[in-house]
Amino acid sequence: MFFSKQKKRRNFFRKAQVAPYQAHRFKNPYFRAKAKAPTWPLAAAGAAIGLLIALSSFFITAPIFTISSVRVEGAETINPKEIRDLAEDYLSSRSLLFFKTSNRLFFNEEKMRSLLEDKYSFSTLDVKREKQTLAIIFKEKISSFLWLTNSNSYLLDETGSVIRATPTEETELILSPPLIQGPTKIGGLIPETVKILVFQDLANKPISVGDAVLLENEVYNVRTFFEAMYSAGIIIDRFELNRSIGSWLKAETQEGFDLLFDPSGDVLQQADNVLLLLKDQVKDRSALEYIDVRFGDHVYYK
C-alpha cells in the first residue's frame, strides 16, 4: 500500500511552454554565427569587369579603330615617301608600353606634328585622321638657297632660316642639275628653272631645322647681287663665307675669278663697281684672280 506506484499526470501547461524552445535550434549567445554576405554584388562586379575587358579588347583590336594607311598631299621638293615613312614609323611605335599608336584611341596628332616639324619646315601643316587613314596635308616653304656645312646640306628660306636637310641625291641634283633636252611644243620655250644659290660655310658649324644662319636682309642682298651679275653675263656658282670672322662673302664665278663683297652694304653699288672695273681696267679676265668691292669706292683686284 505504501509502496504502490502512482500514475503520473500529464502537465499540458508545461509541455506547451517547452515546445517553442525545442522547436528552435540552440544558439549560444556567446558564439553567435556570422550572417552570410549576399553573393550578387560579387557576381555583378565580375560581370562588369568582364564586360570592360571585352569592350577594351574590341576597341584595341578591331580593324575599324586602326589607322591602316597614310595619305600625303602638298609635296613639291620633299620626297613624299620620306613623310610617309616617318608617319608609319610613328604608327608602329608603342603607347603606354603595350598599345600601338596606330589605334585611334592612342594616336596623338600633336606628337605626329612635332615629329614632322622637327625635320621639315612648312608654311602650313594639317595632320588629321580620316576614318582609317592618316592625312598629312602641307604647303612647303619653297627654298632657293642651299647651305653646305660639315659634310651636310640644308635648304634655307627667304628669311635665312633652315627649312630641312637634303639627302645626298637631292644635293647632287642641285649642284649639278641635269640639262633640259628634248622637243617642245611648237612655239614653246624650255621652262626656266629657279636658280638655287649655294653657300659654303667654311666654319663648318652644325645647324638644325629652324636655325637662322643668315639675316633676312643679307639673303635679299645676296640675291640682288647675284641677279645683277647674272644680267651682266657673270655666272656665280657658289658663295663662301666664314661666320666666325664676319659677314663678308666670296662669290666664285664660272670664269674662274672671285668677287669679294659685303652683303650688309649697298650691293647694287658694289655690283656697279665690279662691272666698271671689268670694263675699264681688266682686258684679260683669264688672268684675273679676284675683285674686292667691300670697301665703298675703294676697289681692289688681282
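Second entry:
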Amino acid sequence: MPDMEMDSAVVGALFDPLVQLLRNALEHGIEPPEVRAAAGKPERGTVLVRVFRRGHETIVEVFDDGRGIATSEVRQRASQLGMHIADDADEQAVLQAIFAPGFSLRELPDARAGRGIGLDSVRCTLQRLGGDVIVASTPGIGACFRLSLPDVPTTTSWTRTRTSHPGATVDAAARTALVVDDSVGVRRVLGVALQRHGWRIVQARDGEEALRVLRAEMPDVVLTDLEMPVLDGYALLRAIRSEGDWANIPIIAMTARVSEARNESLLALGADACLKKPFEETDLLSALDLATARRNQAADG
C-alpha cells in the first residue's frame, strides 16, 4: 500500500477512538488462550489495523479474531436499558446499538465480554469530524470496526457576491464563513459545526490563500488561526482591516494561547472576538454573535 499523509489534527482526533477500539478488542474481544484452543483457534489472538483510501474517504478498520458480538446479547442488553430494537431489524441494525451512550454487554450475567464500553464517544468523535463508524461481526470468528472520514476540500467555490456590508441582515441559509487554518482537522470540525447552523463554508489553508478568496468574494465572517505558514493570522488581520472593502467583515481569531493581554492585542489589530482552542460549539456560536455585534457597532459608529 502506498504511503498516506494525514493531517496531524485528524490523527490527533482519531487517537482516542482508536485507543478505545483497541482496548475493546484486547480486553473484551480476544478470548483467553485456553478458550481459543478449545475452539480450535491459535492461542494467541490477532488484532489488525488497516488504513486505506476509498474514493474521497479515509477508511480505518480495526479487526480482531476474537469471540465476536452476539446479536442476541445486544438485544437482551438493549431491552434492559429500555432501548427499542425492531423485531425485524437485520443483524447490522442490531449491532449498531452498541454505540448508544452507556451501552455495555458487561452488565449481562452471562455475557462473555464488555463490548460497548466507551463506543458512544468513538461515534461522537467521528460524527463531529463529519465521518462515522460501523461494526460487523460473526460470533466465534471476530469483529471489525470501520471508521470512515470524508475529505474536506481546501477551498469551496462560491456563486454569490455581496455588495452590502456583512453586518446587514441576511437569510441564515445565505451566510458564508471563511475558515482559515493550516489544519484540515480544525477546518473540518468548524465546517461541520457551522453547517449545522445554516452557514455555508469556504476554506483556506493560510493567510495568503484567504486573501485570494477575499479578492474573489465577500464572506459574512472570517474565522482565522494565528500561527500559520506563508502568511499568519496576524498579517491577515492587518491586511483585511487595511482594505476598505473588507473593513466591516467580522473577524474571529482562534488560538490555543489565551490571556487578557493577548485578547486585547488581537482586538487592537482588528479582531472582533477571540475563540480558544479547543472549543465547544456553544463557544463558537457565542463568538459569532459577539463578532457580528461588535462589527455592526463599529460600522454604525
